[in-house]
Amino acid sequence: MRCVQICDKVQSLNIWDIINTGKRTSVGVSKIRKITEADCALCGQCITHCPTGALRERDDVRKVMDAVNNPDKIVVAQIAPAVRASWGEGLGLAQHMATEKRMAAAARALGIDYVFDTNFSADLTIMEEANEFLERFTHRDEYRWPMFTSCCPGWVRFVKSQYPDMVKHLSTAKSPQQMFGAVAKSYFAEKILQTDPENIFCVSIMPCTAKKAEAALPNINDANAGRDVDAVLTTREFDRMLRSELITPANLEEEEFDSPLGTGSGAAVIFGATGGVMEAALRTAYYALHKENPKPDLFQSVRGLDGIKEATFDIAGTTIRTAVVHGLGNTRTLMERIKAKEADYDFVEVMACPGGCADGGGQPIIEGQEPAGERGAKLYALDQNNPLRFSHENPSVIALYNKYLEKPLSEKAHTLLHTDHEGWEMPS
Ligand code: SF4
């Protein structure tokens, strides 16, 4: 009954329940519904906390291998920040071998044509979201407050079902996964490969189960080439795919990500830890207001695993009140405080999974452990070691704006990189 407990006590959604009585007792969807009829956030925490393997995500490995084996398809992969902190766990790979570059080599060994990094589009998300925040902040009366991050599809589902009157508070910026898909099938197809975007098959490797549903949203595709993201694999599926193709990453040399969508900053890699999106956005907002960079670790008070973190920053004489929350039970507590006017913020980061994507529902399962802290520490170490610490200094993102999108929040950026969260419905 751990699925019932995690959903009830930690995520506050009560999707699972005990069905029937006596010897017919079993676990099922509460209120005698199908899972597709429930307002499930699809966070996948029931899967990662199931000790028996009774629950799993939809398996999309075959779909990806069919594309890899199709000579008419150019398979383009993106790998999310949190995957690099955990992918080796499902393969029994020693930590010093489970590097980002060996992960890129392993993806290439599967037959993927271009191995890119979601860190690139996480930087792009920051460019759009930080500028959106400043635009709202300087036209305060035209918007609802606080502004919420929108990069976690589990959280977007939660707010749509539990607090529908607060959907307008969400940033309209798409998640890094969806920004990547839109850019891969527009800029990359047109300007770099000079091919029909229909030839591209875009696959994401994610720590997340909710991203599978996000990629299938009816109003998320803006590159005019079918789905912007054709398939989403969890970290567990990626590991399974490597095993089933008999690839031994320990025998592979490290390789670089492909260019140009393979360059990411340290600000992007911490998206995988709770507080990371806020910290990355504040680094770029500081630059926008001051015209010079802050010390990269100036906003580190938003790090850590406390359920709700609050911090106020003075940037160029402007006070910005922030909150960072992870886990949907903590989120409900915060939302109730906001609704009751017991708390007042300008910018709030929400991640549906306890610990953020580091402990996402698609991550390798380590029975009895919650490894968000260790995985998050790996991501912060990668940030420290990256010579590029600011999203606005990512040369590939700058080139994308110069050659294609013009500037953050331009008309083209709005078409490709923003979405209408009210353009689709939750089941009930
Ligand atoms: Fe997915 Fe990360 Fe949100 Fe969990 S916290 S639902 S892994 S985006």
Automatic annotation (TrEMBL):
Signal peptide: none annotated. PROSITE patterns: 4FE4S_FER_1, 4FE4S_FER_2. Keywords: 4Fe-4S, Iron, Iron-sulfur, Metal-binding, Repeat. Pfam families: Fe_hyd_lg_C, Fe_hyd_SSU, Fer4. GO terms for molecular function: 4 iron, 4 sulfur cluster binding; ferredoxin hydrogenase activity; iron ion binding. Residues 31-60 form the 4Fe-4S ferredoxin-type domain. InterPro entries: 4Fe4S_Fe-S-bd, 4Fe4S_Fe_S_CS, Cytosolic_Fe-S_CAF, Fe_hydrogenase, Fe_hydrogenase_lsu_C, Fe_hydrogenase_ssu, Fe_hydrogenase_ssu_sf, Fe_hydrogenase_subset. PANTHER family: NITRATE, FORMATE, IRON DEHYDROGENASE (PTHR11615). This is [FeFe] hydrogenase, group A. It comes from Eubacterium plexicaudatum ASF492.
